[in-house]
Write a structure and sequence with these properties.
The chain has 169 residues and is an alpha+beta fold. It is built from five helices and six strands; from the N terminus they run αααββαββββα. This is SnoaL-like domain-containing protein.
């Protein structure tokens, strides 16, 4: 069965309209919306609200933790995190400073956080999924003052060498 030229044009205009609407939504993300998503996400972890925490991440989100082995899909991160949430307290990250950028329809950010590990830096990318702004990619790192890098490097030297060897093989 073939569609008439008029029907084909109608379908094409409909699809283009959907794409343009989606792009407009992404380009009009406000800093207030970004702050709300990130603040709600951190708050959900502090309250051990597993459902809310993961509902604020895209289905194909990636979480990169402070350990070199922590590069997780959302599913892997959910499995890792579940025992912490089940205990009634996951982690508490309090934003100290946040920078938000939106360019060419992409929203990304970096933030300094007060955590149980001291000051950490989080950075990531947000996308609109199902008309909701969500975290698509998050990277957490421990902020190390430059004057402490040499001693930290020495502390982790053996582990790093073993892991480098593993990755190269």
């Amino acid at each position: 069965m073939s569609l008439s030229l008029g029907m084909q044009k109608t379908i094409l205009y409909f699809v283009l309209g959907l794409v343009m609407t989606s792009c407009a939504t992404i380009k009009n993300v406000s800093n207030k919306q970004v702050n709300q998503v990130l603040d709600d996400w951190h708050d959900a972890a502090a309250r051990a609200d597993y459902e809310t925490y993961f509902s604020l991440m895209t289905q194909n989100a990636v979480f990169i933790g402070t350990d070199a082995t922590e590069n997780w899909s959302r599913t892997e991160f959910e499995a890792f995190s579940k025992p912490y949430f089940d205990r009634g307290k996951a982690w508490s990250f309090t934003p100290l400073e946040r920078n938000i950028y939106t360019k060419n329809g992409i929203t990304y950010f970096d933030e300094l956080l007060e955590t149980q590990m001291g000051i950490c830096r989080g950075s990531g990318v947000l996308f609109v999924e199902n008309n909701q702004l969500k975290i698509a990619h998050y990277v957490l790192s421990i902020a190390v003052p430059n004057e402490n890098v040499k001693s930290l490097t020495q502390l982790k030297k053996d582990w790093d060498q073993q892991y480098i060897s593993k990755l190269k093989n």
